[in-house]
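testing teh design pipeline on a random one, pls ignore if ur not involved
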């Protein structure tokens, strides 16, 4: 008899399912506020990062909303099987934006490694520090993420690249917000892991290694693409 490999489940998955079950059983009614991250961490006896991962997953699935500085709330309208088509359509839109981003941002990263100035490095390093300081603040994290990618375009010293990135800022913002949620949920990843990917891109730019900077940026975007593709097929 052939046995299937048994994979250990992460704590965030178990927390997610328990909170989701509480919502489904109306222990937390639509519109009600969930306990804080600290309170949930104490109740489940897990780390705060585990709770944040679970909440990110619930948000990606549409079960909760997270308000800047206001905590997490159960969505007024809970997900249903009818939402599958809308999610699939949104993921197709994300896929299109990501296809454009791959070609533009990989080139930006390569040129930035060759042309960056000390001022560019200082701005990028400052943004990375900001990203690290706001890991618990989803909205601020999104803004810092966008700034990081725009700064790389600026460091490329290619006005057309920068113009294209700035012209699609709205779509870029939506793409990053949604892809981050999907990535945190599907990969059970954390904000810390995403931060490390950005640091790796920065290090290649700092080292003036254009090939490595391009590859690291492309690898980062390909990972997001895989998660979006997974979301379309599930």
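output:
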């Amino acid at each position: 008899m052939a046995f299937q490999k048994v994979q250990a489940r992460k704590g965030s998955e178990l927390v997610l399912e328990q909170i989701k079950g509480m919502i489904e059983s109306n222990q937390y009614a639509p519109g009600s506020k969930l306990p804080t991250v600290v309170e949930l961490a104490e109740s489940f006896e897990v780390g705060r990062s585990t709770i944040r991962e679970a909440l990110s997953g619930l948000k990606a699935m549409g079960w909760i909303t997270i308000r800047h500085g206001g905590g997490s709330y159960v969505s007024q309208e809970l997900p249903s099987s009818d939402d599958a088509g809308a999610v699939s359509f949104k993921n197709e839109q994300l896929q299109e934006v990501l296809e454009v981003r791959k070609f533009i941002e990989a080139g930006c990263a390569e040129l930035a490694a060759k042309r960056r100035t000390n001022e560019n490095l200082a701005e990028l390093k400052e943004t990375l520090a900001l990203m690290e300081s706001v890991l618990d603040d989803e909205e601020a994290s999104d803004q810092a993420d966008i700034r990081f990618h725009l700064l790389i375009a600026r460091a490329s010293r290619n006005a057309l690249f920068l113009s294209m990135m700035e012209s699609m800022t709205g779509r870029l913002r939506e793409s990053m917000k949604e892809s981050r949620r999907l990535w945190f949920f599907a990969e059970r990843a954390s904000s810390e892991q995403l931060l490390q990917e950005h640091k790796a891109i920065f290090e290649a730019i700092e080292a003036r290694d254009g090939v490595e900077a391009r590859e690291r940026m492309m690898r980062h975007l390909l990972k997001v693409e895989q998660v979006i593709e997974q979301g379309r097929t599930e």
